[in-house]
Amino acid sequence: MNRKMPYTQSLEDLLDKIEEIGTIKRKLSFRDRADTSGYGLYVQSGRLPGGAIQYMAGGRFLKKMVFVREADGTRTIKKYQPGDWELKVKYTLSLCRALERASKGQTEWTEEKFEAYWAEETFDPAIVAKVDSAWQEHHSQLNKVWHQTSPEKRDELVKVYRDELEQEWPTEFIETQLEKTAHAIRERVIKGIKTAYIVGYMIGKGWVSPEEAAGWNLWLGDLIVGNIRSTFKGTESRGTAFASAFASVGTKGTQVASGSGIQAYEPSKREIVEEILRTEGSNLIRRDFRNPELLGQPSLSAQVDYFNPTDSQYLTEAVLGARHFDTKKIESILKTLLKDNYDRYFKAAKQRIISIH
C-alpha cells in the first residue's frame, strides 16, 4: 500500500499520535523506552537517507502500520492493517507523555508540592478508625448515596482519579499502567475510589473533618503502594500521590452533599429503554402489526432469521427477552414506531425508574 497525503482526519490523527510516540521514545532512557509498550503496542522509528524518518507500529514482531515522513513533511504509508491495535494508540501516547514528564524529574514542581511529596508518610490509625466509625453511624444513608450514583457518574469518578495521577504524578501513573501491577491493584483502586467519594460526601455533611478525610486518603494511598510493592519490587510510587488522586474524587462527593443533598439517581439509556419494553411491550407489538410499513414484515408472519432479523422481529424478541439487544438499535426501532411520541414515553419511563430509587 503506497499512498500520498492527505488522508481522512481520523487517519491523520492516528499518524500524528504514532509520530509523537516515536518522538518521545527517542528522548527517553533505554529503561523508560521498555515501559512504553505497557499496553502491548510497539512503536519504532528510525532515520532514513535524505532526512526522512520511518515509523512502525503494531505487535512485538508483526507491524500493522509502516509509514515514512519525508524531510518536507509529507507522509507515505507503506503498510496499514486496521484493527484493534489502534485502540491502544491513545493510551500508549498518554503513557509516553507521562514517562516524558517523569524523566524531567521534579524540577518543575512548586516547593510546597515537593515538600508534601517527600514528607514522612504516616497516617494515624485513630483517625482511620474515627472515619470508619462515622461511616458505620450513617451506613444506611451512605449506602443509598452510592446506590444512587449512576454508572456514568462512577465512570466519571474513575476518570477524575486517573487524570489526577496522569497530570500531576507521572511516576505513580506509569507504575499503575504496567501489566504486572495493573492487575494487582485494580480491585483496591475501585474500592478506594468508592470510599474516597463517600468520605468526601461525609465532609459535606459535617460528619468528618477535611483533616480526617486527608488521613483516610493517605491510608488508602498506603494500601495502593503496598499492592504495587508486592509485584514490583523496584517501585518508586508514594502514597501521597494516590492520596491526592483520592482527594480529587472526594471533592465530587463533597459537592453532592453540600449542594442538593443525596444525588438524584440518573438512569442509563439502556435502563430507560428496558423500562419502555417492560411496560409497553404488548402495545408496541400491536402497534407494529397495525403499521407493517414501519418496521417491515411482522415477526409472526415470516420465518425468523436470528442473525439477520427484520426490525419487527428484533423488537418482538427484545420484548419477549429472547434476545440480548443492542441499545442503539432498539432505540432506533422505538423511534420509528412511536414517532413523535417517543420523547413522551422516554420521559415517563425515566421518571418511573427515578421514583423507585
Number of helices: 16
- What is the count of distinct domains? 3
Give a short account of the largest sheet.
Answer: 5 strands, antiparallel
Instruction: State the helicity in percent bands.
Output: 55-70%
What distinguishing features does this structure have?
single chain; 357 residues; alpha+beta; 3 domains; five-stranded antiparallel sheet; 64% helix; 8% strand; flat; disordered N terminus
How would you explain this protein's 3D organization?
- This protein is α+β, with helices and mostly antiparallel strands.
- The protein has three domains: 3-102, no CATH class; 119-258, no CATH class; 269-355, no CATH class.
- 64% of the residues lie in helices and 8% in strands.
- Strand 4 and strand 5 form a beta hairpin.
- Helix 9 (179-205) runs antiparallel to helix 10 (210-231).
